[in-house]
Amino acid sequence: MAQLPIDINDNISAILSKYSDLVRRICFLYLHNSADVDDVFQEVFLKLLQNNSRFESAEHEKAWLIRVTINKCKDILKSFWRKKIVSIESVELPFEDQTDNELLLVVLSLPDKYKDVIYLFYYEEYTVPEMAQLLNKKANTIYSHLHRARELIKQKLGGKEHDYTL
């Protein structure tokens, strides 16, 4: 294998350290399976290496990574083999304490269009106009999805508003 120039290696290391947590979190939101997360993680960063275009800014680079990650996750979820596999991680263990993860489980159970906006808004702190551009939707659609997602979360939590602020 050919040796990459040092500046490229440094650039790759910087990008990995900056965005690896972001890519893994998005993957886990969709896939709930560490093996699939690892596969998508590698595919996303391989695609970044193969991408010859320059990004306008760090935000453009981040948005590109988010979009590619979401698309790769959706590709995995659509695959024929994925439908035939039952993940051992999805089997609930009776001794696990589910109360600590209640909000996370509710968010993970949301449809993708709601899960995406909740994640981007609360965890990545994107604004609605930024999310609209990233997800190729109108800002009013994003506002509607956020509102509906919050309502679904409240409904699934049984109206519990004491610990969670949405």
TrEMBL record:
Source taxon at top rank: Bacteria
SUPFAM superfamilies per record: Sigma2 domain of RNA polymerase sigma factors, Sigma3 and sigma4 domains of RNA polymerase sigma factors
Domain RNA polymerase sigma factor 70 region 4 type: 102-151
Keywords: Sigma factor, Transcription, Transcription regulation
Gene3D superfamilies named among the record's database cross-references: 1.10.1740.10, Winged helix-like DNA-binding domain superfamily/Winged helix DNA-binding domain
GO biological process terms held by the UniProt record: DNA-templated transcription initiation
GO molecular function, one term: DNA binding
Residue span, RNA polymerase sigma-70 region domain: 17-81
Pfam families the UniProt entry points to: Sigma70_r2, Sigma70_r4_2
InterPro entries: RNA_pol_sigma-70-like, RNA_pol_sigma-70_dom, RNA_pol_sigma70_r2, RNA_pol_sigma70_r4_t2, RNA_pol_sigma_r2, RNA_pol_sigma_r3/r4-like, WH-like_DNA-bd_sf
Annotated PANTHER family: RNA POLYMERASE ECF-TYPE SIGMA FACTO, RNA POLYMERASE SIGMA FACTOR SIGV
Recorded family membership: Belongs to the sigma-70 factor family. ECF subfamily.
The name this protein goes by in its record: RNA polymerase subunit sigma-24
Organism listed in the record: Paenibacillus etheri
